[in-house]
Design brief:
Elements: H1 7-21, H2 24-27, H3 33-37, E1 45-50, E2 75-77, E3 84-86, H4 90-93, E4 99-105, H5 112-121, H6 134-142, E5 152-155, E6 174-176, H7 194-214, H8 218-235, H9 249-255, H10 259-272, E7 277-281, H11 292-316, E8 323-328, E9 332-333, E10 346-347, E11 351-357, E12 364-366, E13 368-369, E14 376-378, H12 383-394, E15 402-403, E16 409-410
Parallel strand pairs: 1-7, 1-8, 4-12, 5-6, 5-7
Antiparallel strand pairs: 2-3, 4-11, 8-11, 9-10, 13-14, 15-16
Helix pairs in contact: 10-11
Length: 424
Amino acid sequence: MQIIPTETSRRSFLEAFAKTFFGVNVLGLSISASAIERRKPPAQSVVYLYLRGGISHIDTFDPKPGRAEMGGVTAIDTSAAGVQVSEWFPKFARQMHHVSLVRSMTSTQGVHDRGNYLAHTSYYLTPTIAHPALGTWALKQLGSANPLLPGNILINGSPQHPGSGYMESHLAPLPIVDPASGLQNSALRRGETALDFVRRTQLAKSLGHSFLERTQLRSVAAYDKIHAKAVDLMKSKDLKAFDITQESAQTQEAYGSHTFGKGCLLARRLVEHGVRFIEVEDDQNWDTHNDQLVSMQRMTPSADQTLAALLSDLHQRGLLETTLVVMATEFGRTPQISEVTAGRGHHPAVFTWWVAGGGMKGGYVYGKSDAAGDRVAEHPVNMPDFNATIAHAMGIDVEKIEHSPSGRPFTVADKGKIIEDLFA
């Protein structure tokens, strides 16, 4: 007779296995079946979506049905039982079964540049040192999955992005200003032959060799690495990864003709080609101090379309399990709509970020804001905690120390704690 194992029997076996072979009873250790089961490959890629300006949590992913704070906007059901989002996100709502909402994000930074910096680095902005963003940490510790492509890419990034901070400049994200134009300056100049290019490259290398030998500055060595990688990329067939026009008209239409949509489509192509960390910044400004309802009505259709298209596309292609999609912003917005400006102010006390794929639970809500969306009610999560969770999902050692050029020790997420409950 064939015995078909159930989830319960599977877990019971794992519990017994842990007790027998890991010495739980003898050593008094607590090793759960879920901890053993989690020994899966980490997220191979991250698509980090940054909605700059501070998006309102109440008008998006943490609605308060029937309350005056909603300003007349309603909440709608999603594909995850018991989870609602704002009516502004009907397409995203149908992908909620892939998503874990963290509705208890909290910060002390209510100014854009400081909130942006903390979100990307897990450290406070200071005049004494520049900290690296999460993508740089990923490239530093994990390397590039595709040796011919940059492992860290920033699409439509703002000047406030911290880049590689104190780490070597070759670990900084490669900036893509216009996702529709592919990778600029990646072909030979008009009239230049391949032989001409080789000669010019060899001459430059010969002239600079003695300088590199005498100079110990990391920036000089990093420039040499960047140049070498650029030459390899120009020769690579993987250069086509940057060309979104190779996608079908139907796929391009699904993501949208706006910059954010094209950026997310490019991100999906880069994931397929093994790029480790891709950040896409929305070109819209969610800093809605004025005319909240009008602003949301104008901005949300494109964002809703793109977020839903990315999650659906990754899932249909079998990429979502190994791709961690993250949505972040610098803070939330006040529950109260101003009677003067009809907008919402900065509100770092509580807001929402979310994750999807990459080994995370789907259709899940972690943490809770209070009835008005004004303060954290359950399970507060700060930005270092969230970033530690992303890093852990990728396989980054959150306790490994890297030193700045001055010798100061740092870890990827400062003192952030991994949110274990988010993992499937």
